[in-house]
DNA sequence: TCTGAAATAGACCTCGG
DNA sequence: CCGAGGTCTATTTCAGA
């Protein structure tokens, strides 16, 4: 893996592609002031370097009936590797869990879960605690999603 | 907007496209057992119905130097609409904030922020509290991202 | 060596059956 | 509803700087 140096044109391309990956090469080229060929090569390099990992379709949460977001803060008192592996496997097998972090501080793990309603959340909750022994689980419901973007800020480029 | 009924083939298509939107129609068609034309029509309909909202490029967090994730829990004691509008505008203008929810319970708002390091987070923090009067701000750092997916679970389809 | 224009290949999308 | 062909786009090649 080479030292990926990204200049301002790469940055512009990423900015555009993070918002809409369907744009045509010629179109992008015009926006960044490059020939189509050159632009195509840039995008190719960004993919090969692993800067762009992949391209995905985003789906409307309400339209697939998972409008409810729940954050689940988990604390444990069993800090063994065995416990962790089991917990991790449990969580990864639950498709309703879309994010899963190991945290510093008070809470040990934080999960973001998407479900249709509270009843469905209860099912997920049961699956979670069935897998492993948890010390404390605290669920917070999101009332409204005010911002959600997959576009990362590009002001800190290497 | 028509009542979007999604059958098991739509579900399969969404499942595939949520993971990789670059797959070719003929390829998808083979996987779901449809003719290319029919498959193309399905995907088209999913887009027109707004089930698929758009297609984006996902970028490697480490490669663009925002490897650190911070969750910011915000509490306020100024529950006016004017305050909210100001806060919302402040938050939306900060590209480091990638998620922003209004919560029930103890915490009023939850933000997910991505930055290169703690110093950079401090800058974001300052921008946050500069915009509006906040009662309490509590930051938790993620040590490790164990799971992150943009793919929603499709077991609750309408 | 690098650029960009033009050829090629291949996928999308439309249309007739 | 299906497949075949026309059209458009990505990709490669190649001549020139």
TrEMBL record, chains A, B:
SMART domains for this protein: HTH_ASNC
Superkingdom of this protein's organism: Bacteria
GO terms under cellular component: cytosol
UniProt record, GO biological process: regulation of DNA-templated transcription; response to amino acid
CDD domains: HTH_ARSR
Stored InterPro entries: ArsR-like_HTH, AsnC-type_HTH_dom, Dimeric_a/b-barrel, Tscrpt_reg_AsnC-like, Tscrpt_reg_AsnC/Lrp_C, WH-like_DNA-bd_sf, WH_DNA-bd_sf
A GO molecular-function annotation: sequence-specific DNA binding
Alphabetized Gene3D superfamilies for the sequence: 3.30.70.920, Winged helix-like DNA-binding domain superfamily/Winged helix DNA-binding domain
Pfam family, one: AsnC_trans_reg
Xref: PANTHER family: DNA-BINDING TRANSCRIPTIONAL ACTIVATOR DECR, LEUCINE-RESPONSIVE REGULATORY PROTEIN
Protein name: Transcriptional regulator
Organism: Roseateles depolymerans
